[in-house]
Amino acid sequence: MLARLPHFGKLSALLALAALQSLWLAGCASTPPKQVGYPIHHTQSYPKLKTNFANTQAVKKKLLREYSQWKQTPYRYGGETKKGIDCSAFVQTTFKQQFGLILPRTTKQQVTAGHYVPMSKLQPGDVVFFNIGLGVFNSGHHNGIYLGNHHFMHASSSEGVTISSLDNDFWRRHYWTARRIGTSLAQKP
């Protein structure tokens, strides 16, 4: 196909292809956190936490309720609707709808919310982060919400909103960190 294009057409096509590839690779792209302490707010309509995060079964039930509303919604970088949503918007929307918490919008900001949790101590509701930088165009990160039993829900660039396993080779290799948001807020006066 490129062979039939004039020289400037080939260059334009290659540049467009490179731009599309960089957007695809970006996923929920963000750089590693340099700031700490992005605020998390209770929504106006939910003055108190709607769930006790220590009750992991109740948390998981709420997460699966939200997942059922978004299942197979396509991925769209920067998207925040059922027409397409990205990973950090899915995390943000889930926490707002199910727990009455407003998280920051981007993975760069969300990775500073709450407090660090080692992988061995993950509980339903913890936000898991992945370093998926795949080349010179991307230092991207991805996130989702842990459900328990090594599974997490997220907006995947290839599958849309889905549930994946941390035991999957890709996710295991790219696992970065996790943050506990709900209980850190619930413990504050």
Could you give a short description of this structure?
The chain is of the alpha+beta class and 189 residues long. The chain has helices at residues 7-26, 56-70, 87-99, 107-110, 169-174, 182-186; strands spanning 41-42, 80-81, 84-85, 101-102, 115-116, 127-131, 141-148, 151-156, 160-165, 175-180.
Overview of this protein structure:
- The protein has 189 residues and is of the alpha+beta class.
- β2 and β3 form a beta hairpin.
- A 6-stranded antiparallel β-sheet has the order 5-10-6-7-8-9.
- About 16% of the residues have low confidence.
- It has one domain: endopeptidase fold (from Nostoc punctiforme) (Alpha-Beta Complex).
Secondary structure blueprint with pairings:
Blueprint: H1 7-26, E1 41-42, H2 56-70, E2 80-81, E3 84-85, H3 87-99, E4 101-102, H4 107-110, E5 115-116, E6 127-131, E7 141-148, E8 151-156, E9 160-165, H5 169-174, E10 175-180, H6 182-186
Antiparallel strand pairs: 1-4, 2-3, 5-10, 6-7, 6-10, 7-8, 8-9
Family: Belongs to the peptidase C40 family.
Pfam families: NLPC_P60 (PF00877)
GO biological process, one term: proteolysis
